[in-house]
Amino acid sequence: MKQMTRTIGLALCAGVFLTGRAWGADVPEGFSVVASQIFTHDANLYRLPDGQSPTIAGFPQQRSDTISTTAAQAIFEHTYSLQKVHGDVELRHNAFQTFDYLDYTATNIHGFWDWALGKRLSGRVSASQDESLRAFSDFSLATKSVNTYRRLAVDGNYWFHPEWSTGFGFIQVASRYSDAQSDLSAYDERAYEAKLNFRPSSGNIIALVLRQADGEYPNRISGGTGVKEYRQRDVLLRGEWGVTGLSRLNGYIGLTQREYPGAASRDFSGVTGRLSYNWQATGKLNIVTTVRREIGAQEDLTDNYVVTTAAGMNATWQFSALFAIGGSLESRYRDYGGDPGFGLSPAVGRNDRTDTVGVSLKYTPVRWLGVTLGVQREARTADNSASDYKDTIVGLAATARF
Protein backbone atom coordinates (compact mmCIF):
# COMPACT_ATOMS: atom_id res chain seq x y z
CA MET A 1 0.00 0.00 0.00
CA LYS A 2 2.14 2.79 -1.23
CA GLN A 3 -0.66 5.23 -0.84
CA MET A 4 -0.74 8.19 1.49
CA THR A 5 -2.35 6.28 4.36
CA ARG A 6 0.33 3.61 4.48
CA THR A 7 3.33 5.92 4.38
CA ILE A 8 2.34 7.78 7.52
CA GLY A 9 4.53 10.81 8.00
CA LEU A 10 5.84 10.84 4.44
CA ALA A 11 2.98 12.54 2.65
CA LEU A 12 2.33 16.22 3.12
CA CYS A 13 -1.32 16.48 2.52
CA ALA A 14 -1.58 17.86 -1.00
CA GLY A 15 -0.14 14.70 -2.42
CA VAL A 16 3.34 16.23 -2.24
CA PHE A 17 5.99 13.72 -1.19
CA LEU A 18 9.04 15.55 0.09
CA THR A 19 11.62 12.89 -0.55
CA GLY A 20 14.76 13.78 -2.43
CA ARG A 21 13.40 12.14 -5.55
CA ALA A 22 10.25 14.26 -5.56
CA TRP A 23 11.56 17.58 -4.32
CA GLY A 24 14.65 17.48 -6.53
CA ALA A 25 13.15 15.89 -9.62
CA ASP A 26 16.03 17.12 -11.79
CA VAL A 27 18.92 15.26 -10.24
CA PRO A 28 22.24 17.00 -10.95
CA GLU A 29 25.19 15.15 -12.43
CA GLY A 30 27.52 13.76 -9.81
CA PHE A 31 26.96 13.26 -6.11
CA SER A 32 24.40 15.04 -3.92
CA VAL A 33 22.82 14.65 -0.48
CA VAL A 34 19.22 15.38 0.53
CA ALA A 35 18.20 15.80 4.17
CA SER A 36 14.65 16.29 5.39
CA GLN A 37 12.68 16.68 8.61
CA ILE A 38 8.92 16.13 8.55
CA PHE A 39 6.37 16.54 11.32
CA THR A 40 2.93 15.07 10.69
CA HIS A 41 -0.14 15.18 12.94
CA ASP A 42 -2.60 12.40 12.08
CA ALA A 43 -6.03 12.90 13.67
CA ASN A 44 -7.17 9.30 13.10
CA LEU A 45 -4.06 7.15 12.98
CA TYR A 46 -5.84 3.78 12.99
CA ARG A 47 -8.52 4.86 10.47
CA LEU A 48 -11.46 4.14 12.78
CA PRO A 49 -15.14 5.09 12.36
CA ASP A 50 -16.48 8.12 14.23
CA GLY A 51 -16.85 7.52 17.94
CA GLN A 52 -14.40 4.63 18.15
CA SER A 53 -11.00 4.67 19.84
CA PRO A 54 -8.17 2.16 19.45
CA THR A 55 -7.75 -0.46 22.16
CA ILE A 56 -4.21 -1.67 22.84
CA ALA A 57 -3.36 -4.23 25.53
CA GLY A 58 -6.94 -3.99 26.71
CA PHE A 59 -6.91 -0.22 27.28
CA PRO A 60 -8.58 2.45 25.13
CA GLN A 61 -6.21 4.96 23.57
CA GLN A 62 -6.42 8.34 21.87
CA ARG A 63 -7.12 8.42 18.13
CA SER A 64 -4.39 10.85 17.07
CA ASP A 65 -0.61 10.91 17.01
CA THR A 66 2.27 13.12 15.87
CA ILE A 67 5.01 11.53 13.81
CA SER A 68 8.55 12.84 13.34
CA THR A 69 10.29 11.63 10.18
CA THR A 70 14.00 12.29 9.77
CA ALA A 71 15.58 11.28 6.47
CA ALA A 72 18.95 11.42 4.75
CA GLN A 73 19.49 10.42 1.16
CA ALA A 74 22.67 10.08 -0.90
CA ILE A 75 22.28 10.32 -4.68
CA PHE A 76 24.70 9.63 -7.50
CA GLU A 77 23.95 10.15 -11.18
CA HIS A 78 26.31 10.42 -14.13
CA THR A 79 26.32 10.00 -17.89
CA TYR A 80 29.25 8.19 -19.49
CA SER A 81 29.00 8.61 -23.26
CA LEU A 82 25.96 6.45 -24.18
CA GLN A 83 25.56 5.05 -20.66
CA LYS A 84 23.73 6.66 -17.75
CA VAL A 85 23.82 5.38 -14.17
CA HIS A 86 21.83 6.43 -11.13
CA GLY A 87 21.80 5.24 -7.54
CA ASP A 88 20.31 6.55 -4.32
CA VAL A 89 20.15 5.25 -0.76
CA GLU A 90 17.86 6.73 1.86
CA LEU A 91 17.53 6.12 5.59
CA ARG A 92 14.21 7.31 6.98
CA HIS A 93 13.47 7.13 10.71
CA ASN A 94 9.83 7.40 11.76
CA ALA A 95 9.17 8.18 15.44
CA PHE A 96 5.62 8.18 16.87
CA GLN A 97 5.08 10.44 19.87
CA THR A 98 2.32 8.34 21.50
CA PHE A 99 2.32 4.92 19.84
CA ASP A 100 6.08 4.50 19.92
CA TYR A 101 5.85 0.73 19.38
CA LEU A 102 5.29 1.68 15.72
CA ASP A 103 8.72 3.36 15.42
CA TYR A 104 10.80 2.04 12.54
CA THR A 105 13.66 2.98 10.24
CA ALA A 106 13.18 2.41 6.52
CA THR A 107 16.01 1.69 4.11
CA ASN A 108 15.02 2.72 0.59
CA ILE A 109 17.36 1.93 -2.29
CA HIS A 110 16.96 2.70 -6.00
CA GLY A 111 19.28 2.30 -8.96
CA PHE A 112 19.21 2.06 -12.72
CA TRP A 113 21.55 1.77 -15.69
CA ASP A 114 20.38 3.13 -19.04
CA TRP A 115 22.59 1.17 -21.40
CA ALA A 116 23.25 1.41 -25.13
CA LEU A 117 25.38 -0.46 -27.63
CA GLY A 118 25.66 1.78 -30.66
CA LYS A 119 22.48 3.19 -32.14
CA ARG A 120 20.49 -0.04 -32.41
CA LEU A 121 20.60 -1.66 -28.98
CA SER A 122 19.46 0.10 -25.80
CA GLY A 123 17.57 -0.56 -22.60
CA ARG A 124 17.48 -0.23 -18.82
CA VAL A 125 18.38 -2.39 -15.84
CA SER A 126 16.86 -1.24 -12.55
CA ALA A 127 16.50 -2.45 -8.98
CA SER A 128 14.76 -0.98 -5.95
CA GLN A 129 13.73 -1.60 -2.36
CA ASP A 130 11.08 0.39 -0.47
CA GLU A 131 10.04 -0.07 3.15
CA SER A 132 6.88 1.42 4.67
CA LEU A 133 4.34 0.88 7.43
CA ARG A 134 1.28 -1.07 6.40
CA ALA A 135 -1.85 1.10 6.29
CA PHE A 136 -4.33 0.75 9.09
CA SER A 137 -7.04 1.61 6.57
CA ASP A 138 -6.56 -1.87 5.13
CA PHE A 139 -5.10 -3.72 8.10
CA SER A 140 -7.50 -3.72 11.05
CA LEU A 141 -5.07 -5.05 13.66
CA ALA A 142 -3.20 -2.45 15.79
CA THR A 143 0.03 -4.25 14.95
CA LYS A 144 3.31 -2.90 13.64
CA SER A 145 3.61 -4.27 10.12
CA VAL A 146 6.42 -2.98 7.91
CA ASN A 147 6.30 -3.94 4.26
CA THR A 148 9.48 -4.50 2.24
CA TYR A 149 8.86 -4.24 -1.50
CA ARG A 150 11.67 -5.23 -3.88
CA ARG A 151 11.64 -4.93 -7.66
CA LEU A 152 14.13 -5.96 -10.36
CA ALA A 153 13.57 -5.08 -14.02
CA VAL A 154 15.58 -5.71 -17.21
CA ASP A 155 14.58 -4.11 -20.50
CA GLY A 156 16.14 -4.19 -23.97
CA ASN A 157 15.20 -2.83 -27.41
CA TYR A 158 16.54 -3.40 -30.93
CA TRP A 159 16.02 -0.44 -33.26
CA PHE A 160 15.76 -2.05 -36.69
CA HIS A 161 14.58 1.29 -38.12
CA PRO A 162 15.19 4.87 -36.90
CA GLU A 163 11.55 4.99 -35.74
CA TRP A 164 10.77 1.34 -34.96
CA SER A 165 12.09 -1.23 -32.51
CA THR A 166 11.21 -4.52 -30.89
CA GLY A 167 11.91 -5.20 -27.25
CA PHE A 168 11.78 -7.63 -24.39
CA GLY A 169 11.37 -7.05 -20.66
CA PHE A 170 11.58 -9.03 -17.44
CA ILE A 171 10.25 -7.87 -14.05
CA GLN A 172 10.49 -9.65 -10.71
CA VAL A 173 8.71 -8.40 -7.58
CA ALA A 174 8.79 -9.63 -3.98
CA SER A 175 6.65 -8.27 -1.13
CA ARG A 176 7.22 -9.26 2.50
CA TYR A 177 5.99 -8.13 5.94
CA SER A 178 7.70 -7.89 9.30
CA ASP A 179 4.84 -9.39 11.37
CA ALA A 180 3.54 -12.95 11.53
CA GLN A 181 -0.10 -11.86 11.07
CA SER A 182 0.71 -10.67 7.54
CA ASP A 183 2.67 -13.72 6.37
CA LEU A 184 -0.19 -14.91 4.17
CA SER A 185 -0.15 -11.55 2.32
CA ALA A 186 3.46 -11.97 1.12
CA TYR A 187 3.69 -12.54 -2.63
CA ASP A 188 6.16 -12.98 -5.49
CA GLU A 189 5.53 -12.06 -9.12
CA ARG A 190 7.55 -12.71 -12.25
CA ALA A 191 6.53 -11.06 -15.52
CA TYR A 192 7.69 -11.10 -19.13
CA GLU A 193 6.99 -8.49 -21.80
CA ALA A 194 7.31 -8.39 -25.59
CA LYS A 195 7.09 -4.95 -27.20
CA LEU A 196 6.84 -3.17 -30.53
CA ASN A 197 7.89 0.49 -30.20
CA PHE A 198 7.25 3.46 -32.49
CA ARG A 199 9.26 6.64 -31.88
CA PRO A 200 8.94 9.32 -34.58
CA SER A 201 11.36 12.20 -34.96
CA SER A 202 9.12 14.34 -32.71
CA GLY A 203 10.41 12.38 -29.70
CA ASN A 204 7.00 10.94 -28.86
CA ILE A 205 6.81 7.19 -28.25
CA ILE A 206 4.09 4.55 -28.31
CA ALA A 207 4.44 0.83 -27.69
CA LEU A 208 2.29 -2.27 -28.13
CA VAL A 209 3.05 -4.57 -25.18
CA LEU A 210 2.15 -8.22 -24.60
CA ARG A 211 2.68 -9.11 -20.94
CA GLN A 212 2.34 -12.27 -18.88
CA ALA A 213 2.80 -12.41 -15.11
CA ASP A 214 2.82 -15.40 -12.76
CA GLY A 215 2.27 -14.70 -9.08
CA GLU A 216 2.53 -16.80 -5.95
CA TYR A 217 1.64 -16.34 -2.27
CA PRO A 218 4.49 -18.47 -0.90
CA ASN A 219 3.21 -18.81 2.68
CA ARG A 220 -0.15 -20.26 1.72
CA ILE A 221 -0.95 -23.94 1.38
CA SER A 222 -2.53 -25.12 -1.86
CA GLY A 223 -6.10 -26.12 -1.20
CA GLY A 224 -6.08 -24.37 2.19
CA THR A 225 -7.19 -20.88 3.16
CA GLY A 226 -7.20 -18.58 0.16
CA VAL A 227 -5.45 -19.34 -3.13
CA LYS A 228 -1.74 -19.81 -3.68
CA GLU A 229 -1.16 -18.70 -7.28
CA TYR A 230 -2.46 -16.46 -10.05
CA ARG A 231 -1.70 -15.77 -13.70
CA GLN A 232 -2.25 -12.44 -15.44
CA ARG A 233 -2.16 -11.58 -19.14
CA ASP A 234 -2.18 -8.03 -20.51
CA VAL A 235 -2.37 -6.46 -23.96
CA LEU A 236 -1.32 -2.85 -23.48
CA LEU A 237 -0.77 0.32 -25.46
CA ARG A 238 1.81 2.47 -23.65
CA GLY A 239 3.10 5.84 -24.64
CA GLU A 240 4.02 9.45 -24.06
CA TRP A 241 2.76 11.99 -26.56
CA GLY A 242 3.02 15.75 -26.85
CA VAL A 243 -0.54 16.93 -27.50
CA THR A 244 0.52 20.56 -27.80
CA GLY A 245 3.68 22.49 -27.03
CA LEU A 246 2.40 22.97 -23.46
CA SER A 247 0.78 19.60 -22.73
CA ARG A 248 1.65 15.92 -22.75
CA LEU A 249 -0.35 12.73 -22.41
CA ASN A 250 1.32 9.63 -20.98
CA GLY A 251 0.35 6.26 -19.58
CA TYR A 252 -1.23 3.07 -20.87
CA ILE A 253 -4.54 1.44 -21.69
CA GLY A 254 -5.27 -2.20 -22.38
CA LEU A 255 -7.08 -5.44 -21.62
CA THR A 256 -6.23 -7.46 -18.52
CA GLN A 257 -7.15 -11.01 -17.60
CA ARG A 258 -6.26 -12.46 -14.19
CA GLU A 259 -7.02 -16.06 -13.21
CA TYR A 260 -6.85 -17.76 -9.81
CA PRO A 261 -6.66 -21.54 -10.38
CA GLY A 262 -9.31 -23.27 -8.32
CA ALA A 263 -11.04 -19.97 -7.44
CA ALA A 264 -12.74 -18.86 -10.65
CA SER A 265 -15.10 -16.56 -8.73
CA ARG A 266 -12.07 -14.34 -8.00
CA ASP A 267 -11.02 -14.00 -11.65
CA PHE A 268 -10.88 -10.58 -13.31
CA SER A 269 -11.20 -9.62 -16.96
CA GLY A 270 -11.64 -6.11 -18.31
CA VAL A 271 -10.19 -2.81 -19.42
CA THR A 272 -7.34 -1.36 -17.37
CA GLY A 273 -5.24 1.74 -17.79
CA ARG A 274 -3.66 4.86 -16.38
CA LEU A 275 -3.60 8.12 -18.33
CA SER A 276 -2.11 11.41 -17.10
CA TYR A 277 -2.52 14.73 -18.88
CA ASN A 278 0.13 17.29 -17.92
CA TRP A 279 -0.82 20.85 -18.89
CA GLN A 280 1.47 23.83 -18.36
CA ALA A 281 -1.42 26.27 -18.36
CA THR A 282 0.82 29.31 -17.83
CA GLY A 283 4.45 29.87 -17.01
CA LYS A 284 3.52 29.59 -13.31
CA LEU A 285 0.55 27.19 -13.28
CA ASN A 286 0.86 23.44 -13.91
CA ILE A 287 -2.11 21.02 -13.80
CA VAL A 288 -1.91 17.23 -13.95
CA THR A 289 -5.10 15.20 -14.38
CA THR A 290 -5.01 11.42 -13.95
CA VAL A 291 -7.61 8.71 -14.53
CA ARG A 292 -6.89 5.05 -13.90
CA ARG A 293 -8.33 1.57 -13.52
CA GLU A 294 -5.77 -0.92 -12.26
CA ILE A 295 -5.48 -4.23 -10.50
CA GLY A 296 -2.85 -4.55 -7.81
CA ALA A 297 -1.52 -1.01 -8.25
CA GLN A 298 1.51 -0.58 -5.99
CA GLU A 299 0.33 2.71 -4.48
CA ASP A 300 -3.08 1.24 -3.62
CA LEU A 301 -2.39 -2.10 -2.03
CA THR A 302 0.74 -4.19 -1.87
CA ASP A 303 -1.26 -7.39 -1.39
CA ASN A 304 -1.93 -7.21 -5.13
CA TYR A 305 -5.60 -8.07 -5.67
CA VAL A 306 -7.79 -4.96 -5.43
CA VAL A 307 -9.24 -3.37 -8.58
CA THR A 308 -9.01 0.42 -8.25
CA THR A 309 -10.84 3.01 -10.36
CA ALA A 310 -9.81 6.60 -9.65
CA ALA A 311 -9.76 10.13 -11.00
CA GLY A 312 -7.70 12.95 -9.59
CA MET A 313 -6.05 16.30 -10.21
CA ASN A 314 -2.93 18.02 -8.89
CA ALA A 315 -2.16 21.70 -9.48
CA THR A 316 0.84 23.86 -8.61
CA TRP A 317 0.89 27.64 -8.86
CA GLN A 318 4.31 29.28 -8.47
CA PHE A 319 2.92 32.71 -7.71
CA SER A 320 6.29 34.20 -6.75
CA ALA A 321 9.97 33.30 -6.78
CA LEU A 322 9.71 32.23 -3.14
CA PHE A 323 6.22 30.72 -2.80
CA ALA A 324 4.14 28.06 -4.50
CA ILE A 325 0.64 26.79 -3.71
CA GLY A 326 -0.33 23.19 -4.37
CA GLY A 327 -3.72 21.56 -4.45
CA SER A 328 -4.91 18.00 -5.01
CA LEU A 329 -8.10 16.01 -5.09
CA GLU A 330 -8.89 12.38 -5.85
CA SER A 331 -11.91 10.12 -5.77
CA ARG A 332 -11.00 6.42 -5.59
CA TYR A 333 -13.28 3.39 -5.81
CA ARG A 334 -11.94 -0.05 -4.86
CA ASP A 335 -13.51 -3.41 -5.68
CA TYR A 336 -12.37 -6.32 -3.49
CA GLY A 337 -14.14 -8.93 -5.61
CA GLY A 338 -10.77 -10.32 -6.70
CA ASP A 339 -9.49 -10.71 -3.15
CA PRO A 340 -8.22 -14.31 -2.98
CA GLY A 341 -8.76 -14.28 0.78
CA PHE A 342 -6.44 -15.35 3.56
CA GLY A 343 -8.72 -15.54 6.57
CA LEU A 344 -7.58 -12.33 8.28
CA SER A 345 -8.87 -9.45 6.20
CA PRO A 346 -12.33 -8.00 6.81
CA ALA A 347 -12.11 -6.53 3.30
CA VAL A 348 -13.28 -9.67 1.47
CA GLY A 349 -16.35 -8.88 -0.60
CA ARG A 350 -16.19 -5.18 0.30
CA ASN A 351 -16.27 -2.19 -1.98
CA ASP A 352 -15.32 1.29 -0.83
CA ARG A 353 -14.88 4.84 -1.99
CA THR A 354 -12.26 7.24 -0.66
CA ASP A 355 -12.30 10.98 -1.36
CA THR A 356 -9.20 13.04 -0.68
CA VAL A 357 -8.57 16.79 -0.92
CA GLY A 358 -5.50 18.72 0.13
CA VAL A 359 -3.66 22.03 -0.10
CA SER A 360 -0.07 23.00 0.56
CA LEU A 361 2.17 26.05 0.65
CA LYS A 362 5.85 25.72 -0.26
CA TYR A 363 8.49 28.33 0.63
CA THR A 364 11.89 28.26 -1.07
CA PRO A 365 14.06 30.96 0.55
CA VAL A 366 17.19 29.70 -1.21
CA ARG A 367 17.73 27.26 -4.04
CA TRP A 368 18.86 24.39 -1.82
CA LEU A 369 16.12 24.65 0.84
CA GLY A 370 12.36 24.07 0.68
CA VAL A 371 9.78 24.31 3.47
CA THR A 372 6.23 22.99 2.96
CA LEU A 373 3.09 23.27 5.10
CA GLY A 374 0.11 21.18 4.08
CA VAL A 375 -3.24 19.81 5.18
CA GLN A 376 -5.22 16.89 3.77
CA ARG A 377 -8.75 15.68 4.44
CA GLU A 378 -9.66 12.07 3.66
CA ALA A 379 -12.99 10.24 3.98
CA ARG A 380 -13.99 6.68 3.14
CA THR A 381 -17.43 5.12 2.80
CA ALA A 382 -17.72 1.34 2.42
CA ASP A 383 -20.33 -1.37 2.01
CA ASN A 384 -19.45 -2.34 5.57
CA SER A 385 -19.99 0.76 7.71
CA ALA A 386 -17.38 -0.50 10.19
CA SER A 387 -14.80 0.38 7.54
CA ASP A 388 -15.92 4.01 7.19
CA TYR A 389 -13.59 6.71 8.49
CA LYS A 390 -12.66 10.38 8.27
CA ASP A 391 -9.17 11.75 8.82
CA THR A 392 -7.31 15.04 8.79
CA ILE A 393 -3.55 15.17 8.43
CA VAL A 394 -1.40 18.28 8.89
CA GLY A 395 2.26 18.28 7.93
CA LEU A 396 5.30 20.54 8.09
CA ALA A 397 8.49 19.60 6.24
CA ALA A 398 11.89 21.08 5.51
CA THR A 399 14.09 19.58 2.79
CA ALA A 400 17.65 20.60 1.91
CA ARG A 401 19.83 19.48 -0.98
CA PHE A 402 23.61 19.72 -0.80
Fold and architecture overview:
This protein has 402 residues and is mostly beta strands. The chain has a single domain (4-401), classed as Porin (Beta Barrel), CATH 2.40.160. Helix content is 1%, strand content 63%. It has one helix and 22 strands. β12 and β13 form a beta hairpin. Residues 1-25 and 342-348 have low confidence and may be disordered.
Beta-strand percentage range: over 45%
Mean pLDDT reading = 87
The protein's oligomeric status is: single chain
N/C terminus separation: 31 Å
Can you tag this structure with a few keywords?
mainly beta; 18-stranded antiparallel β-barrel; Porin; disordered N terminus
Secondary-structure map:
Elements: E1 11-12, E2 16-17, H1 20-23, E3 30-42, E4 55-56, E5 59-60, E6 65-80, E7 83-96, E8 104-117, E9 121-133, E10 146-161, E11 164-177, E12 187-198, E13 205-216, E14 229-244, E15 247-259, E16 268-280, E17 285-295, E18 307-317, E19 323-335, E20 351-366, E21 369-382, E22 389-401
Antiparallel strand pairs: 1-2, 3-6, 3-22, 4-5, 6-7, 7-8, 8-9, 9-10, 10-11, 11-12, 12-13, 13-14, 14-15, 15-16, 16-17, 17-18, 18-19, 19-20, 20-21, 21-22
